[in-house]
Known about the structure:
nine-stranded mixed β-sheet, globular
Amino acid sequence: MKLMQILLYPLALCYGCLMFFRNLLFDWHILKSVQFPVPVISVGNLSMGGTGKTPHIEYLINLLKDKYFIGTLSRGYGRKSDGFIIASRRSNVKYIGDEPLQYVKKFNNIKVAVDEKRVRGIRNMLQKYPDIKVILLDDAFQHRWVQPGLSILLTDYHHLYYEDHIFPSGWLREFTIGAHRADIIIVSKTPGIFSPITRRRIIEEINPRSHQQVFFSFIRYDEPIPVFHSNPWPDKISYILLFTGIANDYPIREHLERKCSTLIVMKFPDHHPYTSSDLEKIRKQWDDLPTQRKVIITTEKDIMRLKSAETSTFAKNLPLFYLPIEVDLHGSDREDFNNIVLEYAEKSQRNR
């Protein structure tokens, strides 16, 4: 441990014990978790963020949407509103948050809602849309007021939870023992070509319980998409200016370094609400690059916080792109994971 981690450890221990006691209250049924008559699938993590929850939720949507009417429920991190809100394509990021806005703009025939109180959110969704067959809970591993039927825990390959420490000494929201609540553990952001030896080592370190299965996912990048113009991605690029407001940008940096001579990175805090001052800084950095063979790129999630009249003015005549991503699972993991999710949803429908 580094010196600062050691100094913060007593505070971290207090925080961890508080979370541990809270979990005991739920385990002992002193605090009550609510079960619902529809399949509820939770996706979350032990860490403070950056494990890839959004593309994994999208993976589940793609897996289930042709068979079931799906609802997604998030708290709407960073939004300026309160309470239960059904998202629409006309919603903005200040009203519902960036991830729900991405879901509602990307997928047809699903319902997207936000509510900081998930029990209330699910009840309102089912009352308003009784035909919903499956609910996906985004970032809800610690939200124990809801008892999911299937709990998926993500851990970043480069920041595995068993190598981390409790906040503020590290980035864990609770002690690693909390991982036993998960039905599925997914190691995310693994390399595209993945060593079986490394796989076995990580599974041994996780030491899953008898009810748990461990899978490994990786990121697949699509072609960059222009935001405010129809210019194609150039054949030859000297400079890429990347700006992001996400927790961990190393996978996209690694990917883009192979597409240019020089990658310039401007990193903002996670879920950062871009201001006109930020856009001016980005534009100045762009203007200072010495060549015409250059582009600006960001993430799909960042674009949700950028699309506005102000951004349109900023991006006028600029080659601004975003990079869509999706996740996939290695080898037989894909089929095995899909079967678990589909069998759970089908069994739950039969038992209703």
